[in-house]
Amino acid sequence: MNPWRLFILKIFGSNISGIPFVHSTAKIRIPWHLTLRHRSCLGECAVAYSLGEIEINEGATIAQEAYLCTGTHAFEKPAMQLITKKIIIEKNVFVGARAMILPGVTIHKNAIVGAMAVISKDVGENDIVAGNPARKISVRTFLK
């Protein structure tokens, strides 16, 4: 059924190139803000809360129940208006189960985000991060 899911996402304005995979239980809140590239993957129960743009590039995997959120609020202001910032997941990234990616984050190519990590800052190329808040724990040296 993946071809049908991709077709429906395209109808609702998603930018899709190649053949990405979207699990049947993945949740996409505002599809016209979502970009999926070839062989990218939104896993089981993953959430793309795309109040702003989310770009998932070639070969990147968003594992089960991971949460990508592009919105927050201006808490310092009485009206607490909505603020959106783009999330970019570059090529060949792996985002582990139940990880949380916050607004404005770029996860650079070949990086790995551990399960249940909270990512509030950019993750460097080939870095392996884990924890809450996420911290660099290693580097994928075989890919350099």
In CATH, the homologous superfamily goes by the name: Hexapeptide repeat proteins
State the secondary-structure class.
Answer: mainly beta
Percent range for helical residues? under 10%
Order of helices and strands: HEEEEEEEEEEEEEEEEEEE
Distance between the termini: 37 Å
- Tally of contiguous helical segments: 1
- Poorly predicted regions are none
Mean of all residue-level pLDDT scores: 96
- CATH architect. name: 3 Solenoid
Q: How many strands, which pairing sense, and closed or not: the largest β-sheet?
A: 7 strands, mixed
Shape: globular
Summarize the structure.
By secondary structure, this protein is mostly beta strands. It contains one helix and 19 strands.
Give an overview in words.
The chain is 7% helix and 35% strand. The termini are far apart. It contains 1 helix and 19 strands. It has one helix at residues 2-11, and strands spanning 15-16, 21-22, 27-28, 34-36, 41-42, 47-49, 54-56, 61-62, 67-69, 71-73, 82-84, 87-89, 94-95, 100-101, 106-107, 112-113, 118-119, 127-130, 135-139. The protein has one domain (2-143): Hexapeptide repeat proteins (UDP N-Acetylglucosamine Acyltransferase, domain 1, 3 Solenoid). The radius of gyration is 15 Å and the shape is globular. The model has no long low-confidence stretch (mean pLDDT 96). It has a 7-stranded mixed sheet. Strand 10 (71-73) and strand 11 form a beta hairpin. With 144 residues, the protein is mostly beta strands.
